[in-house]
From TrEMBL:
Annotated keywords: Membrane, Transmembrane, Transmembrane helix
Pfam families to which the protein is assigned, alphabetical: STAS, Sulfate_transp
Protein name (Swiss-Prot/TrEMBL): SulP family inorganic anion transporter
Protein origin, superkingdom: Bacteria
PANTHER family, per the entry: SULFATE TRANSPORTER (PTHR11814)
Domain STAS: 438-554
Membrane-spanning intervals of the chain: 62-93, 105-128, 140-163, 183-201, 213-235, 255-271, 292-311, 331-364, 385-409
Length: 557
C-alpha cells in the first residue's frame, strides 16, 4: 500500500475495513443496520421531544452522528446517536436560554452540540482524558439513576396530557399529582395503552421491535380516529427531506453561557464511548481517536440542526450480536433515516406525543441499576452515600450541578483517604523471614524503628506522617537511635512533603536519632537528593536497597 493510501486509511479507517470486505458480509451489515434502525428511529423521535425540541431533530442527530462517526471511528461495532442522558442535559441547558422560542431552542441545541464536539476534539489533542477517571462507578451509578428517575417523573405529564410548567422533574410530577382533574382521557388512553403494549411486547416477544410496532399502530389509530382534531397532541408537521447544513445563529454570549455544560457533556459522552468500545470487543483501539470521532459526530449533528449525540453500549452489543462486520452498517442506518425523512413526514406528523412519552418511560428504568446500588450499599457504605448524593443532586439541582457535586465529593473522599494513609511499624524477627508487621506488643528491637507508609507524600498527609514518626520516637524510653523509612509504596513527593521530610530529618537529629531510607523509588530519591529545604537535610540520608540491609547497617553502625 502506497503512502497516499496509508494516509487515507489513517484518516478514514472505514476504507481499511472495506479493503478486505467480502460480498457475503453485505447481508449481515444490512441486517445489523435494520436492527439498529427499527430500535433507534422511535427512540430518536422520543429523545428529540425529551430535549424539548421538535422530535425530528432526533432524526437529524441520528443522521449526522451515524454518518460521520462511521467514517472516522476505528471500531467496527460502536453505535453513536441520540441518547436520553444528553437529550435531558440539552433540555436543562437550552430551555431557560430559549425563553419559549422553539426556533431559538433548536439553534441553541445545535450550538451546544458544536461546543461539545469542540470539547471532545480538545480532549483528544490535549492530555485531558484523565478527567473522565473522576467519574467513578458510584458517581456514574447515582448520575444515571438520577437521570432515569428524572425521565420517569418528567414524562408522566405528557403521558396523561397534563401540561407541566418548569423544568424540574419532581416539581412536574407533583404538578401532575395535584392536577389530576386536567387529565385528557384520549391522550391518557393512548399513552397508557402504548406503555402497556411496550412492556408486554418486550417481555413476551423480545425480538420484535416493540417501539417501531407501537409507533406504527399509534399512527394508524391517530389517522383512523382523527386524534389531531380531538385534543390529542401529536408531533405535527414534520419537515420532509434533509435539513439545511448551516451554523446555528447564536450570539457569543450564548456560546459562553453553554461552554461549561458542553464540557460536562463531553466528559459524560467520552465515558460512555469508552464503555461502548470495551463492550464492543474492540481492544487495542486508541481512545483519543474515538474521542475525536465522537467530536466529529457531534459537530455533524450540530450542523444538521440536531443535538449532542453519544455512544450507546446496549446498541453496540445489539449490532454486534446481529452480525455486523464493519461500520458500513451505520452508513446503511443513516440511509434508512434519510428514507424516513423524505417519505415518512406525513406519517410521523400523526404520532401522538403521549406515545413518545411512553417510549421514554420504558427506557428510563434501564438507567436505574437497583442491583448495583444495593451491592454498593452492602459493601461500600461511603461510596453508596456518594451515589445517593449524585441521585439527589441530579434531581434537586439539575443534571450538571448534581454530577459536579458528586464528582467533588468523590474527589474529596479520595484526598481524605490519601491524607490518612495506612502506616505500620515493621520488625525483623529472624534472618529467614521478611520484615513482619507489628500488630500488637512491642518491637523486638526498640532501638531501631522501621516505619512504613503506603501512600505518596504530599501536602495533605506530610504533616500527619511527620507527627506520627515523632510521636513514635518520643514515646519510647530510651529513645530509638535510628528510624528506617520503608518507602517502597511512596511514588511521589511534592514540595510540601519535601519540606516536611527535611524538617523531620532535622527534628530527629535534634533528638539524637538518625533516619535512613529503604526501597526508595528513583524519582522520589532524585527529589530528596535535590531537596533544598533545611540546608538540604535529606541530601545526605543513607539509602539501602532493602529493609533488612538498612537494619543490618544501622545496627552495626
Amino acid at each position: 500500500m502506497d503512502a497516499r493510501r496509508i494516509r487515507a486509511v489513517n484518516v478514514v479507517p472505514l476504507i481499511g475495513q472495506l479493503r478486505h470486505y467480502s460480498a457475503r458480509w453485505v447481508r449481515a451489515d444490512a441486517m445489523a443496520a435494520f436492527v439498529a434502525a427499527v430500535t433507534s428511529l422511535p427512540q430518536a423521535l422520543a429523545y428529540g421531544a425529551l430535549a424539548g425540541l421538535p422530535p425530528t431533530t432526533g432524526l437529524y442527530t441520528a443522521l449526522g452522528a451515524a454518518t460521520v462517526f462511521a467514517l472516522f471511528t476505528a471500531t467496527r461495532f460502536v453505535v453513536v446517536g441520540p441518547s436520553s442522558a444528553l437529550a435531558l442535559l440539552t433540555f436543562a441547558v437550552v430551555r431557560e436560554q430559549a425563553g419559549g422560542d422553539d426556533e431559538r431552542a433548536v439553534a441553541l441545541a445545535s450550538a451546544l452540540a458544536l461546543l461539545m464536539g469542540v470539547c471532545c476534539l480538545l480532549a483528544a489533542v490535549l492530555p485531558l482524558q484523565g478527567a473522565a477517571e473522576f467519574l467513578s462507578m458510584p458517581v456514574m451509578l447515582g448520575y444515571l439513576a438520577g437521570v432515569g428517575i428524572g425521565m420517569l417523573a418528567g414524562q408522566v405529564g405528557p403521558l396523561l396530557g397534563i401540561a407541566t410548567p418548569g423544568s424540574d422533574p419532581l416539581l412536574k410530577l407533583w404538578h401532575v399529582l395535584t392536577h389530576l382533574e386536567q387529565v385528557r382521557p384520549l391522550t391518557a388512553l393512548m399513552g397508557l395503552g402504548a406503555l402497556a403494549a411496550l412492556v408486554v411486547l418486550r417481555r413476551c416477544l423480545p425480538r420484535l421491535p416493540a417501539g417501531l410496532v407501537v409507533c406504527l399502530l399509534a399512527i394508524a389509530i391517530s389517522a383512523a380516529a382523527g386524534l389531531t382534531g380531538r385534543g390529542v397532541a401529536v408531533i405535527g408537521p414534520a419537515v420532509g427531506g434533509l435539513p439545511e447544513l448551516a451554523l446555528p445563529r447564536v450570539s457569543l454570549a450564548d456560546l459562553w453561557a453553554m461552554l461549561l455544560p458542553a464540557a460536562g457533556m463531553a466528559l459524560i459522552a467520552s465515558v460512555e464511548t469508552v464503555s461502548a468500545v470495551r463492550h464492543g470487543g474492540t481492544g487495542g483501539i486508541s481512545l483519543d481517536r474515538e474521542t475525536t470521532a465522537l467530536g466529529a459526530a457531534s459537530l455533524a449533528a450540530g450542523l444538521l440542526s440536531g443535538f449532542a449525540p453519544m455512544a450507546s453500549t446496549s446498541s453496540t452489543m445489539s449490532v454486534r450480536g446481529a452480525g455486523a462486520h464493519s461500520q458500513l452498517f451505520q452508513l446503511i442506518t443513516a440511509g434508512i433515516v434519510v428514507f424516513v425523512l423524505f417519505t415518512g413526514g406525513p406519517l410521523v406528523a400523526l404520532l401522538p406525543m403521549a406515545v413518545l412519552a411512553a417510549i421514554i418511560m420504558v427506557g428510563a428504568p434501564k438507567l436505574i441499576d437497583v442491583t448495583g446500588l444495593l451491592r454498593l450499599w452492602r459493601g461500600w457504605r461511603a461510596e453508596s452515600v456518594i451515589a445517593l448524593v449524585a441521585v439527589a443532586g441530579v434531581l434537586g439541582l439539575g443534571v450538571l450541578r448534581g454530577l459536579l457535586i458528586a464528582v467533588i465529593l468523590s474527589a474529596s473522599q479520595l484526598i481524605g483517604r490519601a491524607a490518612r494513609p495506612h502506616d505500620t511499624l515493621l520488625a525483623i524477627v529472624d534472618d529467614d523471614r521478611p520484615p513482619q508487621e507489628i500488630t500488637d506488643g512491642a518491637s523486638p528491637h526498640p532501638d531501631i524503628l522501621i516505619y512504613r507508609v503506603d501512600a505518596p507524600l504530599f501536602f495533605a498527609n506530610a504533616g500527619r506522617i511527620r507527627q506520627r514518626v515523632l510521636a513514635l520516637v518520643t514515646a519510647l524510653e530510651p529513645r530509638p537511635r535510628c528510624v528506617i523509612l520503608d518507602a517502597e509504596a511512596v511514588f511521589y513527593v511534592d514540595a510540601t512533603a519535601a519540606d516536611t521530610m527535611a524538617q523531620l530529618t532535622a527534628d530527629l537529629d535534634a533528638l539524637g536519632c538518625r533516619i535512613a531510607l529503604a526501597r526508595v523509588r528513583g524519582p522520589v530519591l532524585a527529589v530528596l537528593r535535590a531537596n533544598p529545604y533545611h540546608d538540604g537535610a535529606t541530601r545526605r540520608l543513607p539509602v539501602f536497597p532493602g529493609v533488612r540491609e538498612a537494619f543490618t547497617a544501622m545496627r552495626e553502625s
